Amino acid sequence: MATLQPTRKDIQETDVEIGESALSKIGFYLLMTLFALFFLLPLLWMVSTAFKPFEEWLSVSWIPVNPTFENFTSIFNDKSLPVTHWFFNSLLIAVLFTAFILIIDSLAGYAYARLEFPGKNLLFGLLLATLVMPGIMFLIPNYLTVAKLGWIGTLQGVIAPGLSGVFGVFFVRQFFQSLPRELEEAAYIDGASVWHTFVSVILPLSKGPIITLGIITFLTSWNDFLWALLILGGDREALTLPVGLATLQGQYTFDYGKLMAGALVLTLPVLLLYVIFQRYIIRSISMTGIKG
Amino acid sequence: MVKKGKSLSVPATRKARKKVSIVPYLFIAPHLLFFTAFLAWPFFYGIYISLFKFDFLRPEKRPFVGLKNYAELFDPKSVPFDDFWNGLSNTGEFILWSVLPLVGIALVLAVLLNRNYPGRGIFRTIFFAPYTLSVTVASVLWWWIFQGQGGLVNNILKGIGMNPPNWLGDMPGAWIAITIATVWWTIGFNTIIFLTALQEIPKSLYEAASIDGANSQQQFMLITVPMLRSVLVFVLTITLIASANLFGQPYLMTGGGPAEGTQTVIYRIFIEGIQRSQMGRAAAMSIFVALLLLSLTYLNFKFFGSTQEE
Q1: pLDDT above 90: residue B87
Q2: Cα torsion at A247, A250, A251, A255 (round to 10°)?
């Protein structure tokens, strides 16, 4: 069988044991379904609560008797709750952050993968060293740096510190290293500059990893809570959705329908991205594991 | 591929690539700028701040205090002592609650996903989905589900005639709720890492073992577990670190209660440094916690890691 050009599937999967009875098959699917329900039911409960009118919030029924949009309209129309602002703040921050990460990390990743320069090993060693540093060490001093720059409560205050991260650099570097060197050599023989080779030969071949990095960076930024809370905590209009939703919890402590409507607004774009791009997302997680 | 490169004819601006060129530095410069400002500099700046009585709101009065901020953490009579050690022990308690299920159940899920059957892609998608959500969504959702009055869990318990506990306001209910929320939210990550590692194990090993008469249990213990050793250490380490960094879930679900029982050490640093502006003290706490985490990682690899590099 091995000589018959095994597909990746053949290599990867351990077969279900031969002779497995129908009964144990049913048992297996039952077990899987139980696990699946553990992950799915809370999400369904969120959706269900979000569409329930006030009178039904405390009922156990999974399907609202009189489904309504009033939770959504009220959080979007309440002047004291700039949910629309929060949504666009989150979107703007996540898009800008992702764009910056993709640009600076692919440039740096390419240099560390393929270009030779004095100090390269030392610098790369420094980058590596920060991977083991617990993030909590940087919280207070970075807050002070952002304060000194006058960036508390601003977009750049939320975005800039995260651009120092080394994950993206490693991620693209690993890919660039896997490309055959002949690609660049051919371009150099034709007289192309390093920059031109990077932009017109290397980048077009790197769409997969760059999309992967882009999606996980977007998700990380869209979901970020602690740093956005520190930097934006004061000004209500400037909040992102995760931080705003937390204040919604304070304000509407027992207004579960509105809270779940807010949570759903925060969740939908992410789940949509996940369903479309799950291959890329899961592959990037796999790579984290292989690195370790 | 090479042909594709050749068709690319650019006006020749040939660079002397042998001598030191400025170009590579231009490539790394943007990242290096942020790296220096927000990863290299704060490493030293954090240590510096920790040597001062550094009140954020009183820039005019920030005296140098040497190692006092550190000494206080070991002096039972000092102001921050009780809260800090309460935070540390709470973090330790959450590690005890969470690490075993986060690693053990993830391994079970990965093994279940690593078989060939219709629908396994859908199960994988479902198991991993919560990981893509924000900590706010995960926390607020489970906070709602565990509400004492009207929460889903208690409504079900009442329905089957049980006495519903006040989950978020009592111990150990608060830890159980936070642990379940965390497992639900993050276990997909560990599962995918285990699944990838399982798929890297050559199938021929299992074939050889079954020819030699090993049953599936023996195959699991004699092939799967040893082959997973290094990834197991990796997952254990990142899970320990993630659990040690617990903040958002208690912040949003219990407010650190009941009676500061779920106020973790990161939560404490947040209160001390950000809410109370005592940044010197918070920086010292951060460095102490960071050293603890580093030693934990080191010990983990020393005791559980394989001796050979893989």
Answers
A1: yes
A2: 110
Of A166, A201, A263, nearest to B137 by CB-CB distance is A263
- The per-residue pLDDT for B222 is 87
Q: Are the beta carbons of A139 and B273 separated by less than 8 Å?
A: yes
Tell whether B150 is covered by a domain: yes
- Residue A54 is encoded by which pair of tokens? 């006030």
- How high is the pLDDT of residue B60? 85
Q: Which two tokens stand for residue A288?
A: 């984290």
User: Would an 8 Å CB–CB cutoff place A143 in contact with chain B?
Assistant: yes
- pLDDT > 90? residue B7: no
Q: Which domain holds residue B148?
A: 68-304
Residue among A277, A251, A272 nearest A75 (CA): A251
Interchain proximity A225–B248, CB inside 8 Å: yes
Inspect the interface and report whether the beta carbons of A118 and B20 lie closer than 8 Å: yes
Residue of chain A whose Cα is closest to the Cα of B201: A12
B184 and A39 in contact by Cβ < 8 A?
yes
pLDDT digits (tens, 9 = 90+) for B273-303: 999 999 999 999 999 999 999 998 888 888 8
Domain assignment of residue A128, given as a range: 77-291
Crossing angle of the two packed helices B135-145 and A256-291, in degrees rounded to 10: 130
Residue A193 distance to chain B (closest CA, Å): 7
Q: Which residues make beta-bridge pairs with A14?
A: B115
Side chain identity at B15, as an amino acid letter? K
Q: By C-alpha distance, which of B96, B132, B130 is closest to B244?
A: B96
Q: What are phi and psi of A86, to 5 degrees?
A: -60, -45
Range from A10-24, B82-96, B154-168 carrying the lowest mean pLDDT: A10-24
Quick one: pLDDT at residue A289? 57
* Domain boundary, last residue among A5, A39, A68: A68
Looking at the domain assignment, is residue B52 inside a domain? no
Q: What's B138's domain CATH number?
A: 1.10.3720.10
Number of domains, chain A: 2
Q: Per the structure, how many domains does chain B have? A: 1
Indicate if A64 and A160 belong to the same structural domain: no
Instruction: Report yes or no on A5 lying in a domain.
Output: no
Closest to A62 (Cα-Cα) out of A80, A36, A42, A88: A42
What's residue A281's pLDDT?
A: 84
Specify whether A158 is located in the same domain as A36: no
**Residue B278, domain member (yes or no):** yes
- How far CA A252 is from CA of A74, A248, A262, in Å, comes to 12, 6, 11
| Chain A residues touching residue B42 (CB < 8 angstroms) | 137-138, 141-142, 145
pLDDT single digits (tens) A131-189: 888 889 999 999 999 999 999 999 999 999 999 999 999 999 999 999 999 989 989 99
- What does the alpha-carbon distance between residue B191 and residue A286 come to, in Å, rounded to a whole number? 10
Is A246 within 8 Å of B140 when comparing Cβ atoms? yes
Residue A220 in domain = yes
- Give a yes or no: residue B34 inside a domain: no
Residue with the larger pLDDT of the pair A38 and A6: A38
pTM across the whole model = 0.87
Do the Cβ atoms of B43 and A242 come within 8 Å? Answer: no
